[in-house]
Design goal:
Arc Repressor Mutant, subunit A; elongated
């Protein structure tokens, strides 16, 4: 799973958000490292909706413009949980190897 997808699903895990809200949450979650442009964001939201990982919860008109609120589906929550587990395993493997490296370097 690509990092922007992971962050979008993570942003929606807390509750429904409109596009700009997702954009702001992704930036906050990544410490400002990931900033999604509108085209990238809405393309990703459309793709995730097609995959049934998210869905439009509701639409409302604000200042004459339609605002869509997206929510995480149960399938999306399952995929996010699986990705969290995968990342934890990978991080644990990397940490273990770094510890072994540090031990080996200290022994020389």
């Amino acid at each position: 799973m690509q990092e922007p997808t992971f962050l979008i699903l993570t942003a929606l895990a807390q509750g429904p958000l409109h596009g700009y809200g997702v954009q702001q949450e992704v930036a906050a979650l990544s410490g400002g490292q990931v900033k999604l442009g509108a085209g990238t964001l809405y393309g990703a939201l459309d793709r995730l909706a097609e995959q049934r990982l998210i869905e439009v919860e509701r639409e409302e008109a604000v200042d004459g413009r339609l605002r869509r609120y997206y929510r995480l589906t149960d399938d999306g929550a399952g995929r996010l949980a699986a990705e969290v587990d995968r990342l934890r395993r990978n991080a644990a493997a990397a940490a273990a190897r770094l510890r072994r490296r540090a031990t080996a370097l200290g022994a020389t």
